Amino acid sequence: MKTTRTRPAPITGDDLDREQQNIRYEIATLAFHLLDAEQAAAGVLPWVEAPDAHGRLLGCWETENGSLGRLTVLRAFRDDAELARERMRARGSRHPFGAGEHLTDLTQQSFAPFPFVPPVRTGAFGPVYEIRDYHLRPGGLPATLAGWRRALPARHRVDPLTVVMYALDGPDRIVQIWPFESLDERVALRRTLYTDGVWPPPGAPDHILEATSTIAWPTAFSPLT
Fold this sequence. Notes:
Layout: H1 18-21, E1 24-31, H2 37-42, H3 44-48, E2 56-63, E3 70-77, H4 80-91, E4 105-113, E5 128-136, H5 141-158, E6 163-167, E7 173-180, H6 183-195, E8 208-218
Antiparallel strand pairs: 1-3, 1-4, 2-3, 2-8, 4-6, 5-7, 5-8, 6-7
């Protein structure tokens, strides 16, 4: 039976209120040996829902292409202070994310949403998720924001976005997450968007130095499915 997809939040291109703009996101990437996926994922939900935990779990995915043996965990925080408290909890733990001996590496990165993109709405949007990571030229973020502000509302109406956000540390970069019913739908939608001139955002590709794309599947406990 076909799953009923959740209705996405609208995107108009107008800036949201300050409380929504203050939301912070974290992407935690857990690396593990290829045969340890189940064991590595088993501790994630207890970790993020522990009594001393901060933030809210939005999604957890296992990679299907690119760097295999990876879990991507997306969480939201009210503001910088709440994110910082949770980051310190991870730094002070001998077994972050409950992965124990199955965790071979851990990367945690902080992001702010584009000011006109609403908070992530969980639900059934996939089950195929594409995570795109763009390393931008230094100073390329303002033009990228401007281009996305113009183009994203039209794309979002036919190809809903989960989130697009910019890095708060490290090099200038943005990360975007898109859900699809299937890989075939992804290919068909992207072809139509380019043919119709809806995408890419005007001027934004000029500021991309390097782009990567990862296809991932939600875990059984992921709020985004």
